[in-house]
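Molecular chaperone
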Amino acid sequence: MKVLSGAVWLILFFLHANTVTAAVMLYGTRVIYDAGKREQLVRLSNESDSPLLIQAWLDDGVEKAVAEQKVPFILTPPVFRMSARQGQVLRMQYTGEALPEDRESVFYLNVLEIPPKPKIDNGQNTLQLALRSRVKVFFRPIALAEGPKDLGGKLKWRLVKENGATALEVLNPTGFYASFANASVQAKGKRHSLETNMLGPGETLIFRFTSQVPGNVDMEKVIFPLQPYQR
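Tokens:
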């Protein structure tokens, strides 16, 4: 088992992109709700030339949860019509239920877009699809109001053996979630990609290589492009 030393550089790439579905665009790849705020606004835009019926709700991580699932937020309006090429603002309000005060909590915002029924001629069969987008909502307690500083530099990682294969163990000792666009290790002049997942506060995860790597890896670089949810 090899502990990575200061000779390994952590390179952060801050990516800026919008989450786009077939018609509805959410401004931002995630939502940060600071506990001291009265409400958090989420802006949507209908990029299509047709009106849409929209349903919005929050869940706590159960992706197939129904819209009536109980979460500590009120979202308004929950159902509305969006005209073509128009925008809409969702208002998210924290209802005060107890949440951890030393670490972030994660929820998910769902936006379901239902297109208008197509005109049917001569009894033709049609297929109508309702598309859903889903983004993370991080509730940030007052104790963490300043936001993460050098989050990537605080992660601790080391090489481990898992079922005889080399893997990378990553520990997040902070109270913030770390989300990765992708990750790779550069060893002996070759880059090896890693399977990644969101790393929660205090969590340790094993990131597996997507291709075979030498049994005795001489680490040159660990590249973790963190997605920019901090501000």
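Residues 1-21 have pLDDT under 50 and may be disordered.
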